[in-house]
Design brief:
30% of the residues lie in helices and 23% in strands. By secondary structure, the protein is an alpha+beta fold. The protein has a 6-stranded mixed sheet with strand order 1-2-6-5-4-3. It is globular.
Length: 182
């Protein structure tokens, strides 16, 4: 969520891979939480019911296409971004992070055809040193500034869970064992 809080936690090893876990375990839960929207049933609209944000491990052109057909927008890093874009394409943009902080990012946007001919949006962020981070999205209705904010805010959740694992034994908290209390 844009406030930095997750909707739910999946407490299992992701052995079959992120894509399999998203399709088998996460989407059924989200389908139950997010109401159906009749205008999305035929798959001809650019609208979506919700957006899932994930890292490069979930990158797959076929997966992105399947999610688009289900009315699920995806936001992930481009695993094979290719050559850098020219500097003239980038514009300074005020991006609101989940914390409410507004940061300036140099952003550019293009359409990109993936290896399976699926068309997606590509938003790139250019750092002060010129490094470009490429983000792909199947969300064609949101402002690129919003997409950048959502993608780069996901780090706070990842860092929160990493810190909680290290400092508070978070993995031990999600347990069904019981102890007798005197």
């Amino acid at each position: 969520a844009m406030d930095g809080q997750p909707f739910f936690m999946v407490n299992q090893a992701v052995d079959p891979g992120m894509i399999a876990v998203i399709e088998r375990d996460i989407l059924p839960q989200l389908d139950g939480l997010v109401p159906k929207q009749p205008e999305l049933e035929d798959g001809t609209t650019n609208s979506h019911r919700f957006t899932i944000v994930f890292d490069r491990e979930g990158y797959s052109p076929d997966f992105l296409q399947r999610m688009k057909k289900r009315g699920v927008a995806c936001l992930t890093y481009h695993k094979f971004a290719g050559e850098d874009w020219v500097d003239d394409e980038f514009r300074p943009s005020a991006v609101r992070l989940h914390s409410g902080e507004i940061v300036e990012m140099d952003l550019a946007e293009r359409g990109t055809r993936l290896s399976n001919n699926h068309w997606v949006r590509e938003v790139r962020k250019r750092s002060r040193k010129g490094h470009q981070t490429a983000v792909l999205s199947t969300d064609f209705s949101s402002d690129p500034v919003h997409l950048a904010g959502a993608m780069f805010s996901r780090w706070s959740q990842e860092n929160f869970f990493r810190y909680s694992r290290q400092r508070f034994a978070l993995d031990r908290l999600a347990d069904y064992s019981t102890d007798e209390i005197p």
